[in-house]
Every structure is written in structure tokens, then in C-alpha cells.
């Protein structure tokens, strides 16, 4: 009797193990090393015209604020304010814009405003992903980002060095991706096209500890 019970338990355990493994294989996709092409595009972005306009805006702002700083430095003259007896001037009437501390301060602030706008525009452009490509073998991914003057920039990193901050289903406008040892996030525009959503979810779309 005990032999029959042991036989039934052993075969029952083997049956459950086989069916459990089969169900897992059906539900979890396996990324193998035999990808069909050298590179497998995961995602594209189709907003190049918007980035061209954004870079043009940044350059125009930089030129304008640089000219304004040069104008302030060369035009503002030292004109001391003369107070008449019995007349009380308002606070802004007592300011001598030609004094060195005001002239240099205005010059520096104008230049930094223009430089700051251009820097912010270019950093946003360089962190906006145009193509995201899974390399053959499935162990590395390439970021193709926009660059100033219509030049693309390509960076290839191991897959375990990137982490998606949100899932594809939860992201509405943009999907930020963190890359190890890189400042700021790389941004995917959700208006683009996911050519293989499931492949993206199980590779670049995973949240990892980096």
C-alpha cells in the first residue's frame, strides 16, 4: 500500500512540474541570442521638425541676450545722480546704471540668461531619443539622440546599465530612462512608434537597480 502511495505522489509531482514549466514558457517571453537581424529597432521618434525649431529658438535667444550684454557693457555710462536740496528721490531714481557694479552685473546677467537658455535647449535635445535599438545578442542597446545642427549622436550601453522609470502602459507623454553614470534622463516621446512593444517591455522597458 505504501509503495502505491509513493508511486502516485512521485508521478503527481512530476506531472505538476512539467505543466508548470510549460505554462511559464507560454507566458514569459525568452530573449535568445539568435535575433533575426544585426540590429532590432525597438522604438522611433518622429518629431524632428519640433527639435529643429527648438534649436533655432535657443540660438536666437543666445544671440539676442549676448548682443544685449554687449550693448549694456559698451553703452551704459557713469552718470552720478545729483540730489537737489529738499527733494527726495525715489529708490530707482538714485540708481546709477553706469556704475561698474550695475553695468558689469547687467552684462553678466544678460549673457548668462542667453547661455542658460541655449544650454537647456541643447541638453534637452541631446537627451531626447530618436531611435532606440537593441543590438544583436540582446545584451546591449543603442540610443540614437538628436543633436544640434541636424547631427545624430549614438551611444551604446549594456542592457543592465539602463532603467526605465515608468512602464510603457503608465507613461502618458514621455518615458524617462536612466543610464548609469550619466546625468539627467534620456527621454522617449510617447507619440512615437513602438515597433515591438513586447520586446521593449522585457529589455529596455524594465526598471533595474543601477
What is the topology?
Elements: H1 2-27, E1 39-44, H2 48-75, H3 100-126, E2 129-135, E3 140-145, E4 153-158, E5 162-164, E6 174-179, E7 186-189, E8 193-194, H4 197-201
Antiparallel strand pairs: 1-2, 1-8, 2-3, 3-4, 5-6, 6-7
Helix pairs in contact: 2-3
Strand percent estimate:
15-25%
Record the strand order, biggest sheet: 4-3-2-1-8
Report the structural category: alpha+beta
Task: Determine the number of helices (DSSP H or I, runs of at least 4 residues).
Answer: 4
- Give the H and E element order: HEHHEEEEEEEH
Cα Rg: 30 Å
Main beta-sheet strand count, sense and barrel state: 5 strands, antiparallel
Indicate the mean pLDDT: 78
Termini, distance in Å? 56 Å
Give the oligomeric state of the chains in this entry, treating copies of one chain as homo and distinct chains as hetero: single chain
Broad shape: elongated
Q: How many beta-strand elements?
A: 8
Residues in helices, as a percent range = 40-55%
Which stretches are low in confidence, meaning pLDDT under 50 for 5 or more residues running?
Answer: 1-9, 15-38
Structural commentary:
By secondary structure, this protein is α+β, with helices and mostly antiparallel strands. The chain has four helices and eight strands. The chain has helices spanning 2-27, 48-75, 100-126, 197-201; strands at residues 39-44, 129-135, 140-145, 153-158, 162-164, 174-179, 186-189, 193-194. Helix 2 runs antiparallel to helix 3. The chain is elongated. Mean pLDDT is 78; it is low at 1-9 and 15-38.
